[in-house]
Amino acid sequence: MGKAKKVKARRKLSGAPAGARGGPAKASSNPFEVKVNRQKFQILGRKTRHDVGLPGVSRARALRKRTQTLLKEYKERDKSNVFRDKRFGEYNSSMTPEEKMTKRFALEQQRHHEKKSIYNLNEDEELTHYGQSLADIEKHNDIVDSDSDAEDRGVLSAELTAAHFGGGGKLLHKKTPQEGEEQEKPKSRKELIEELIAKSKQEKRERQAQREDALELTEKLDQDWKEIQTLLSHKTPKSENRDKKEKPKPDAYDVMVRELGFEMKAQPSSRMKTEAELAKEEQERLRKLEAERLRRMLGKDEDEDVKKPKHTSADDLSDGFVLDKDDRRLLSYKDGKMNVEETEEQSKEASDTESNAEEGDSSGGEDTEESDGPEGHSDLESNAESEEEDQEPAKEQWQTPRKGLLGREERAGKAARDELPYTFAAPESYEELRAVLSGRSLEEQLLVVERIQKCTHPSLAEGNKAKLEKLFGFLLEYIGDLATNDPPDLRVIDKLVVQLYHLCQMFPAPASEAVKFVLRDAMHEMEEMIEAKGRTPWPGLGVLIYLKITGLLFPTSDFWHPVVTPALVCLSQLLTKCPILSLQDAVKGLFVCCVFLEYVTLSQRFIPELINFLLGILYIATPNKASRGSTLVHPFRALGKNSELLVVSDKEDAATWQRSSLSLRWASGLRAPTSTEANHIRLSCLAVGLALLKRCVLMYGALPSFHAITAPLRALLKDHLAECSHPRELQELCQSTLTEMDSQKQVCRPLTCEKSRPVPLKLFTPRLTGFSALVRLVIRLPQPPKPQCPAQKIIFL
């Protein structure tokens, strides 16, 4: 025991490894590869795992695993074929090689004897026909007709037996059945076999024919039975029932689905061009058309600008030539000889050839084909009797094409000169614009203005914007001049408003300034006349058209607009300051009322000047009486020269009147109307006034004071205007207006005091003393903040 202890102590002192004498070696860990996972808190009873980790060892293990798995997958990422060894027992270590080979041989034999497919005839399987092997039949030991349907199938005939088994001796010495005939020459074996084959084929054909006849008879019997069966059962055939049944109509949804199936799919299109690109293309198109027009006007050919090749190649065939000019020469005859004009400046030269006329020829007009003279002109000679007769028609015949060509060129040049140019420069003054537009038709004027805008688009050049702004003012002035014509060109004005609208949308600020300038001038003239005479006459038709155009170019529903608001003031001034002295003034006033209604249709503003003017129109259309139930204000007078301006006393003129639109040509005053026309104008003015009044009734029917406003109008329509002998259409219009007035409901409410909260009485504040004052102070004291720590709470207390 002591010796063993000494040995152990010696080992410890020497530090020899434990496995040096055959013991297990203990793995020593590198302290630099050990990672200690420290915990924040130590919990009793919890078992800790992964206190110490070996990152290097874990990393090496992970790399080894990746090499065995992911690396193989990475190498085989683009490979689809995999070689697999499916030999039986290849990886079974418990089997000996002899057992493996024995088992493999057994499986191969089993796989070989199994039939893989019923359609595979190449397998080693015995095939039979009527119980006989096909291999035996192919040896031709017995010739048996397999197609025979006879009862003695499989029984050999005597001839066949004699031919094969008897050696053919009896067949060679066969005799004919007829007695007394000489013995025939015996047939050879080949002939007998051929005869046998022919006989079998004939029998086969007969059987086939019998089979086909039987099949036809069977089909016929089937058809006859079907017909009889339908008669017995008293039912119609299915085909007839199918025809009688009506096909259901397709549903709307099904029809739509089918239509969508056949609908063409959307095709990709090019991007939308900008406004500048479109303007550039339009300018190029107009320039090209103008160049073509100038070329036609000057009579130039299209190919003059094309450069011609100066050098002619030796291989040129000269088949692409073009005639530069008409080099045809005029052919004429003189004294039986031909004259050829080389140029227009040179004189005619006659050729000195003798004419050989044929004697005895009555016609004298046939030409000989053979030429005896040195120059060969014998085919152009004629008889002396027909020289003078043929000379003039020949000249006219050859001069006609040249004259026709010159006439066509002149007509083409004239048409090009009369054609409207495609490009126009923007006018710098009103006189230039008037010179371009005057003398042209309506379509041509519109086309000229449109082409000016396209050629002077703001995106094409830098100064085009200012030119188009000037063009707007020039067009306004031109419209004013058209309104002063006799009769006024209202159709041209109506079409030019569209061009004004386009320019106003492009340049709203300059357009508004131009319109305000025109309206300002009209207002200044009115104010000067009012200051001088106290009243002003109605302006010309140009100012009225400017007011109409203002409502078309700018929005009229705004509460305040820099252009429309001054126009409304101008319209109200016209209805209150301009007196009605003639039919021309009445027509102008009604036109102003129409414009006023167009201005306030959307906003539905109440216009008292409009109602007052319509009341005056109805007043001067009734005869004067002592009391009419209404009071007139300026510009109308209850009594005076024009108090019965619209009264019609002639019944014949009233009977011939037909309701139509009131023409503005009567507002120009350039031609005085006749008495019949004047009566028709009076009735038309009354009809327009009633129509405007009806529109006002429909517009202002919701106003609380509607019935108070229309009371004078109702009195005139019911008591005075109904008594006049007006045409039936006017009476119906008057009655419908009264009906609309009466149908409006009364929406007035009684006056009531405004509801408000009662004012409380003034109370004296009591004086607080003693305990009540202390309570009030305590109540008003703010609550102490929530203490955050005990020290703050102590300080607060």
Automatic annotation (TrEMBL):
Keywords, comma-separated and alphabetical: Nucleus, Ribosome biogenesis, rRNA processing
Annotated Acidic residues bias: 355-373, 382-391
Composition-biased stretches (Basic and acidic residues): 183-227, 237-252, 272-284, 322-351
Region called Disordered, residue ranges: 1-34, 141-252, 264-284, 296-414
GO cellular component entries: Noc4p-Nop14p complex; small-subunit processome
UniProt biased composition (Basic residues): 1-13
A biological-process GO annotation: maturation of SSU-rRNA
Keyword Nucleus: yes
Family annotation (Pfam families): Nop14
Biased amino acid composition, Low complexity: 15-25
Subcellular localization, as worded in the UniProt entry: Nucleus, Nucleolus
PANTHER family the UniProt entry points to: NOP14 (PTHR23183), NUCLEOLAR PROTEIN 14 (PTHR23183:SF0)
Role according to the record: Involved in nucleolar processing of pre-18S ribosomal RNA. Has a role in the nuclear export of 40S pre-ribosomal subunit to the cytoplasm.
Family: Belongs to the NOP14 family.
Protein name, as recorded: NOP14 nucleolar protein
